[in-house]
Specification:
Layout (H helix, E strand, L loop, with lengths): L6 E11 L5 H10 L12 E9 L3 E10 L9 H5 L4 E7 L3 H17 L5 E7 L11 H10 L3 E4 L8 H15 L1
Parallel strand pairs: 1-3, 1-4, 4-5, 5-6
Antiparallel strand pairs: 2-3
Bound molecules: guanosine-5'-diphosphate (GDP) and magnesium ion (MG).
Protein name: Ras-related protein RHN1-like
Family: Belongs to the small GTPase superfamily. Rab family.
Organism: Rubroshorea leprosula
Length: 175
């Protein structure tokens, strides 16, 4: 019996969602371990790379952090084209951002790669007192749409590494 080979995988990951939901903050928390209360808004998209080591594989993520603004919407397909996984982000204090997240999911289901691994991140859970979207509501929607659901906080780092590791594990299984 040979040793299990450690695969090297390169995977494109895209974050989508309304402006202000915390996409950039989640990526910066994961990549740099930092959080900023006054995060400058992203213009167009930002690109990050991060390497994650699992037992079974080493994953190099190419992370595309998009801008959620409507005016950039027409640019979005080039960001999710060829993506292995997508994280759709909403803000638990904004019902509107949850409705927008559903629109992104529909678009990905229609236009995205059919094997796209979909995650739904309910961000800003540290703002429990301002919550407008129930955890069950997000979880239910994710379940109906074959998505993995996590409640996150870029501010406190709750579930942020878990989110990216979970994505890495799912991607590794498909390669
Ligand atoms: P993006 O437009 O989706 O990239 O959102 P940003 O990452 O720019 O974040 C928008 C605002 O929300 C910034 O002021 C962040 O500091 C704040 N923010 C992001 N994530 C969190 C979080 O988990 N909790 C709290 N309380 N604020 C957050
Ligand atoms: Mg941003």
């Amino acid at each position: 019996m040979g040793k299990a080979s450690n695969k090297n995988i390169q995977a494109k990951l895209v974050l989508l969602g309304d402006m202000g939901t915390g996409k950039t903050s989640l990526v910066l928390r994961f990549v740099k371990g930092q959080f900023f209360d006054f995060q400058e808004s992203t213009i167009g998209a930002a690109f990050f790379t991060q390497v994650l080591s699992l037992n079974e594989a080493t994953i190099k993520f190419d992370i595309w952090d998009t801008a959620g603004q409507e005016r950039y919407h027409s640019l979005a397909p080039m960001y999710y084209r060829g993506a292995a996984a997508a994280v759709v982000v909403y803000d638990i204090t904004s019902m509107e951002s949850f409705q927008r997240a559903k629109k992104w999911v529909q678009e990905l289901q229609r236009q995205g790669n059919p094997n796209l691994i979909l995650f739904l991140a309910a961000n800003k859970v540290d703002l429990e007192e301002k919550r407008k979207v129930g955890a069950e509501e997000g979880e239910q929607y994710a379940k109906e749409n074959g998505m993995t659901f996590l409640e996150t906080s870029a501010k406190t780092a709750q579930n942020v590494n878990e989110l990216f590791y979970e994505i890495a594990k799912r991607v590794a299984k498909t390669r």
